[in-house]
Automatic annotation (TrEMBL):
Species name: Streptomyces afghaniensis 772
A GO molecular-function annotation: hydrolase activity
PANTHER family: PUTATIVE (AFU_ORTHOLOGUE AFUA_2G17250)-RELATED (PTHR43695), RHAMNOGALACTURONAN ACETYLESTERASE (PTHR43695:SF1)
Protein name, as recorded: Putative Rhamnogalacturonan acetylesterase RhgT
Keyword Hydrolase: yes
Ranges of residues in domain SGNH hydrolase-type esterase: 8-165
């Protein structure tokens, strides 16, 4: 939702992300099929899954990092390429988790490594959002990171972002798109500028 703030206006972002889906359930629900029916030659397909692939207790979502996770990611990569679009893989953004000594802890197990390996194998650009967000949470520390997540007196959500968190992560993504040369310097903007929280509008929940 915040990514367009960092891209030139002519670059249109179609956000097909849906809460709670894994690389497997997204395919099984026909959502990848919808994207591939609409994607055009020259488009980019940004692919980021992992959080819900980790749910071993749920067979509708669970994938194993080095087998079924990679297998499903290949569906996105091959589907995009078959239509003349360019796939871009992005490792999972880190959750907010610290040990007793205040050190940021990684939470995604082997999934980021499996995606990195697949990107290298398939020659796909990789945005290492996991490594960058982990470093950012470590830099910010235990208390400051609460300002980036849905962390309140009544809710301690260490996974989902509030507007400042969404903006911070989108900034990381935009910088990675530039670093990996997926986009050029003229395609990105405001990388070092503050973004007002009011620019983000959340979708209204259905009645």
């Amino acid at each position: 939702m915040a990514l367009p703030f960092f891209l030139r206006k002519e670059l249109v972002v179609a956000n097909h992300a849906v809460n709670g889906r894994s690389s497997k359930s997204f395919v099984d629900e026909g959502r990848l099929e919808v994207i591939l029916a609409a994607i055009q030659p020259g488009d980019f397909l940004l692919i980021q899954f992992g959080h819900n692939d980790e749910k071993a207790e749920d067979p509708t979502r669970y994938t194993e990092p080095w087998t079924t996770y990679q297998d499903h990611l290949r569906m996105y990569v091959e589907g995009a390429r078959a239509r003349g679009a360019r796939p871009v893989l992005a490792t999972s953004v880190e959750r907010r988790k610290f040990d007793a000594g205040g050190k940021a802890v990684t939470t995604h197990g082997e999934y980021p490594a499996a995606m990195r390996a697949l990107a290298a194998e398939e020659g796909v650009a990789l945005l290492d959002v996991q490594a960058l967000s982990h470093a950012l949470w470590q830099e910010l520390g235990v208390e400051e990171t609460k300002k980036y997540f849905n962390w309140t007196a009544t809710e301690q959500d260490n996974t989902h972002f509030n507007p400042p968190g969404a903006i911070a992560v989108a900034r990381l993504v935009a910088r990675e798109l530039l670093r990996t040369r997926v986009l050029g310097p003229r395609d990105v903007r405001r990388l070092d500028e503050p973004i007002p929280e009011s620019w983000i509008t959340w979708p209204q929940a259905a009645a």
